[in-house]
Design a protein that fits this description.
The protein contains 16 helices and nine strands. The protein is mainly α. The longest helix is centred in the first third of the chain and has 21 residues. It is elongated, with a radius of gyration of 31 Å.
Amino acid sequence: MPSPSYHRNAYTFSIALVLDASTPFASYATVTIKLASLLQTLEEQSRFLSRDASAPNTGKLYALCEILLEDLNNYSESMIPVDESNTLNVKLFPIYPPPPPLYPHHVPLSTVRLESLTDPNWDLTMLTVLPHINGINSVKQISLLADADYKLVRKALEHLLYYGCLLLLDIFSFNASYAPTAELVSFVEDVDMQDECARYVALPSMEGDLERSQPGPISGFELVELYLKLRQGQTVKSYYIENSTIMDKIDVRRFITFGVIKGFLYRVHRYAIATSKTSRRRREHKIQSKQKANASAVAEIRPDKIEADSLLGLEKFLDGTHCFDEICTELMISEQELLGRLKSFDDVHFICR
């Protein structure tokens, strides 16, 4: 701080916070900057620092630092009146890691009661989106049901995802395939998690009759046995038929969702990949032949043009990096219709991983 009123025409001071080595320092940086700015203002107004002739560990500045230290450690915030005109207000805001990418085929599931957090001053898009977050609707479906712009809906969901209010799941389907991971061992050994799962997968008719202390409609041993039977290449439909005696007692979707949330189940996605560059030429030749054969009737040419456009729109997804959920969501078609369109390609192979 240069000024001719000082002995050396300048006054220099520094502010530092001593943290534990494992403590994230990002949120403390703003507190340090704000404290330095306040002290600079106080010095310019009333020589708060340079005129402090108190003994060590005494005086207004020492008291200010001591109160700030205790408040931040105990409450993560502080409000300290310095004088009649200045007050120090600081708060430690947690710095979260960036949320994972959000795609149209992801299914958000709330981890908190969002309705209890809202108020009329919230963003209108957010208030419109919240009623449709149920662990079943995908991001694309939520934007359609809320009749809101997809980009705004995604922005609102990313905000909730950043603060840990949402989890991302896959679209549940009986044609999907799931398999256990090595983390299943933790479920086998954790009796409390088994009881939690039993209550979570209870059917709606039974859920109201169960108390938190009571066991669910299925034992932990049966749950472990059911999860161990899941494997790649087997659809949820065939798995349900094989174990219908036990599966009739529980909610299948919640049974799968619980394993995915806890991390001991993973979704086996299907990908389509075109291995030859000549497929497009053959397909275009077939389409042109159909159009020429039906050139006499305008009504018959129009469906062929729609078919050509749909196939050309599908081709960009056949590079082995887009799963069936993503393709069906982007094109707004069912998996059965997608498989029907893929039959028009001569060299498409499927990969499950």
